[in-house]
Amino acid sequence: MSAVLETTELKIENYLTLSDEEISMRIEAARHELGEDVVILGHHYQRTDVVKHADLTGDSYQLSVLASQTNADFIVFCGVHFMAESADILGKPSQKVILPDLGAGCSMADMATIDQVEDCWEQLTEVGVVGGETSVAPITYMNSSAAIKAFCGRNEGVVCTSSNAVPLFDIYLKKFDKMLFFPDQHLGRNTGAKFGIPLDKMVVWNPHLDLGGNTEEELRDAKLILWKGHCSVHGRFKDWHVDKIRADVPGVQVLVHPECMIEVVEKSDFNGSTSFIINTVDNAPSGTKWAIGTEVNLVNRLAERHPDKEIHLLAPDLCMCATMYRISPQSLVWALENLVAGRVVNQIKVDEETKKWASVALERMISLTEKN
Ligand code: SF4
Questions:
Q1: Distance between alpha carbon 67 and the CA centroid of its chain, in Å?
Q2: Which of 45, 82, 85, 256 has most ligand 1 atoms within 8 Å of CB, for mutation?
Q3: Is 298 in the pocket of ligand 1 (CB under 6 A)?
Q4: Ligand 1 close to Cβ of residue 231 (< 6 A)
């Protein structure tokens, strides 16, 4: 489990009245003072007034790996809680990970707690789906707590990202009779559909109902058991948004993240991870038109970077990761100035036992995807 190790004497309240310019200057001054002792990570969905201070930008796994390759003693993760945990798991033992605002969680990751997952496994064992003649592997998306990654490590399972879900499903579907996938039902369903698994063989496990709301027979027949979780950002895109943008913008190509519902993915032209979305737009010819179904900050930055292309957000309303938005320039400067003063605030630390088993699941992911 994570713990906050130290509290602060520099109060966050003192930063709330500063002007944007002053905050920006003080962030840069603190960075200069700390030099290579600190690396600031900015997730692709982070707000622009924060990400402009990042040393490295990327997706959560990529950032954790890159940070572990630096000599920085302090990793300041401008992202959400599970990302900071992953950085602590993958980082060097000497590195300390800081999340500038502890309120920056992930609503999807929070939809699967370790107690619920262990209860699910126990129920599946009681009805003979786990531990009987069929083999079942738990697979978790990177967007999950360290405790759930560790659960997968202990039970022959693995972690996947939206970039490598397809090759890992390929391996696991051949090796095991069934998979229990959490916490994002949509990534699980969209990936299962790529292997031709019919929808009625992909049942949903609702952690608030007995047997997840399924019959024993349905669970025995299922190829995939999908946790009832979703991303509050990608879940906002609907299939009618695709119809509407095609009617409004002739020639538009629709590009979405696989955390979107299957109805949206099926109507799109392309779907893939955040890196896939960025590469597709970066490499598209001038004059092409795109409607993108992912977080609004990323879509806005892509539009700014490519004025020669017509780039729309797939939905007209704001699709922002509200929890990631909790990381503000104020919380960033607060964390950095505390470091300058020799205090580590908001450290995210995964306990050694959880770290050990979560590392097993992550190393399994790395070794299986490197072989393919
Ligand atoms: S965009 Fe969705 S999955 Fe990503 S951190 Fe925000 S809530 Fe979680």
A1: 17
A2: 45
A3: no
A4: yes
pLDDT in tens, 25-66: 999 999 999 999 999 999 999 999 999 999 999 999 999 999
| 56-58 vs 158-160, strand pairing mode | unpaired
Q: Is the peptide bond before 316 cis (omega within 30 degrees of 0)?
A: no
pLDDT in tens, 185-233: 999 999 999 999 999 999 999 999 999 999 999 999 999 999 999 999 9
Give the containing element (helix H, strand E) for 140. Answer: strand 136-141
Residue 147, Cα to own-chain centre: how many angstroms?
15
The residue type found at 129 is V
- Ligand 1: which residue has its CA nearest to atom 5? 106
- Checking DSSP bridges between strand 178-182 and strand 253-256, what pairing results, if any? unpaired
Tell me if 81 sits within 8 A of 348, measured CB to CB: yes
Could you tell me which of 277, 267, 357, 272 has the C-alpha nearest to residue 311? 277
Q: Residue 231 CA: which ligand 1 atom is closest?
A: 2
pLDDT tens digit string along 292-328?
999 999 999 999 999 999 999 999 876 789 999 999 9
